[in-house]
Specification:
Radius of gyration: 29 Å
Number of helices: 12
Helix content: 10-25%
Structural class: alpha/beta
Largest sheet: 6 strands, mixed
Amino acid sequence: MFRGRRRRKTLSIGLALVLSGCATVEPVPTAITSSPSATETAIETTEVIEVAIPDEPENSDHGYRQLDPDRIPSFRKCETFEGWWRRGPVAVSFAARDALGLEGIEVSTQIYLKNQDLDDDFDGVICLTDQQLATVAEQSSQQAEANGVDSTDASSGGNDSLSQGMTDGETSQVDDEAFPTGPAIELITSNPVSPSPVEMCKIPDGRPGYLQGYPRGATVNGEQVAGGVGFPFTVGRFPIKGEANIILAMVSFEDTDEFVERPDQFLGPQSRKITQWSNFWSQGQFRYNFQIVENWVRIPMKSSEATSNDEVLAKQILEQFPPGIDYSSVDGTFIYWAPGLVADDHDFGIRVGSNENPFVVGEKRPGLFWAPSKWHTETTNGNLTLDLKMRYTWAHLIHEFLHEQGLNMHAPGNGWQTGLGQNQYPDPGKGFFSAALPAWELFIMGWLRDKQIHCLTDEDLVSQQQAILTPLEISGGDRKALVIETAQSDEFLVVESRRPVGYSEWNSAERGIFVYRADPTIIYQDDHSSGDCGNDPRFPKWSYYLFPDSAGVDPSSWCGDFRIALVREGEKVTYNGIEISLAKSSDNGDVVLVKKVGGLVDQFSLPDHPIDDSPQAQTAEQPWLRTESRQSHCYCCGCTP
């Protein structure tokens, strides 16, 4: 309910407004009633004119129609609101605008409601000062005509895709400091040529010479080593171009549950999702193909009687396979256990013939022979149910395939819901999930094309640079990643755009860019140690997310969810003398600015924070993360997340 003001003091009671979570807005009754929570304000009026919030959002012709409220920022000060909006005051409805005799100002129910705290006098218009009231009233007709002609040409708006897409945090709150007070920067509307040729950003594999050519998981001098992070990429057991041919089979013991009549009923939908995923993320350059063993493979014993010897157990399973299977072109054979496995001395994880255990079992040659640990076929921690794990079996399998193709994964943000390299199951608390791969890993595999990389070197940063990035979750795109090769260290920086669509199951407000640093010299990666919250540099990984400057660097944030690392419109990341900011965000792309700044900033210099392995530290971990420490199969990757 709103009142117009007409030059005499009247007591106005401001009622609390409720912002609807969808495109329409809930109506508010027009009756004015006092309550203990009502806000009483003395304003100058000659009469009280009651105006209700409209049942359906109303918009004047300013270029923004009915938007998802999550796409509209909210502000704490009119100064910063005006820096974003730049069209003057905004009325909640045409009736509220007309009640004040201000036909020239803009109307947007949704923008008003997202910023209703800026309506200090409860007249249904935000950021309207007395001086503006007099000016706008005097020139309302001229201003209305000007807005109708010029709104699409304004430097901060218009109807192009970049001007219409607004994004913000979970609460849609934008910091006042996010908007510079200096001269406005003219943003690009299409990508320029990459300042440096893409070859400059094909960072070489920085591992020592004696490790060159060894894929992830290979044993060298008695130690399993990390895979290459740079170029040329060291391909593992499976190919990365063309096709990988895989056998899928379901195996049961006498005491386990054959929960479907035929394996294809379960594995068929899972395998189709895997093939679709490979087509999308490789941009048609690679696909997984499957043979599904028609019937259950039954082992004539109880699971509690099964051996802990991988090679022997694999051979026993293969002996029960039906005749006639063509192994000649098989890259791998993957098992799904019937639930209900029982064992005290082993976890049922098998990896025979892999990068990590390269030998062949018996006369049959099934390529890699793999089976998951029993953790993946049982409810754990009271949160990750067996049903949830079964529904996302496709994501877990892809993770294992990618390891055999040579990817390290497990970073940046190991265990976070940013990709299936980090976590293959939805967060049972919030439901977040992503089946994405980081842009850098897509690049080194060749799944991002050279022309989709915007390459910057130190020399390019003599002047400020811009690029428009297409989100990884959206097919195609002119640029998919911004790579920054620096002279400050062996590290390089990667920027990628992300959206809560397609393969990323996030809330609509979770949108923006990720910035991460990567180290091509890493020779060892710690994937599954207890106490690792994912982005902690005290646990070696090939990459770490960089947080927005406004987030600070609190070690406890490493155990938080991925949203702390998401850089939103108006935010920036500063690292080692380079500032990366998200200047503009739309549904289909992000305008990213990169420039040099004075001094060096190291977000991860924490000499006063030694690793804490105490029980109290362990309770800080996210409840869905694995905490097994370097068990035989959990350490190498069989017990992810």
